[in-house]
């Protein structure tokens, strides 16, 4: 058990240009139902409670409920700025503080905290620099 966090990209498959792909997927998985959307995993964190806290505070209106929430491109850009600031700061706790919680992992500002920041930067830069992600609806989800 523990805090698992996901950025999910959802693509609508109902347009004519996606019909061939949709039909191939349906045939490959032997599913006799129409596929309207495909979801892809854009990012994953484990017990990165400081990143989770940012999403709760900035995307989820303070609701820490394991729900699924829409994330805008502007949200991703803002998180990248904050992540870079925390990486460069001698006092990252003032920029991206940790959050205690049952199964949320450590709250120290140590190498694991910095590893999570580097992972976050890598995830966000990949998403923001890939023009194909502009076609996706991006959502954040967590569970513990």
Descriptive terms for the model:
about 140 residues, alpha+beta, about 40% helix, about 20% strand, elongated
Large-scale geometry: elongated
Structure annotation, total helices: 4
Q: What fraction of the residues are assigned to beta strands by DSSP?
A: 15-25%
How do the strands of the widest beta sheet line up side by side? 2-1-4-3
Low-confidence stretches: none
Write down the domain tally.
Answer: 1
Number of strands: 4
The residue fraction in helices comes out at 40-55%
Radius of gyration: 17 Å
| pLDDT averaged residue by residue | 93
Describe the main β-sheet briefly. Answer: 4 strands, antiparallel
Q: Would you mind describing this structure in some detail?
A:
This protein is α+β, with helices and mostly antiparallel strands and 144 residues long. The chain has one domain. Helix content is 40%, strand content 20%. The chain is built from four helices and four strands. It has a four-stranded antiparallel β-sheet with strand order 2-1-4-3, covered by helices on one side. The longest helix has 19 residues, at 111-129. The model has no long low-confidence stretch (mean pLDDT 93).
Could you outline the blueprint of secondary structure elements for this entry?
Elements: E1 4-12, H1 16-28, E2 37-46, H2 49-58, E3 68-70, H3 73-88, H4 111-129, E4 137-143
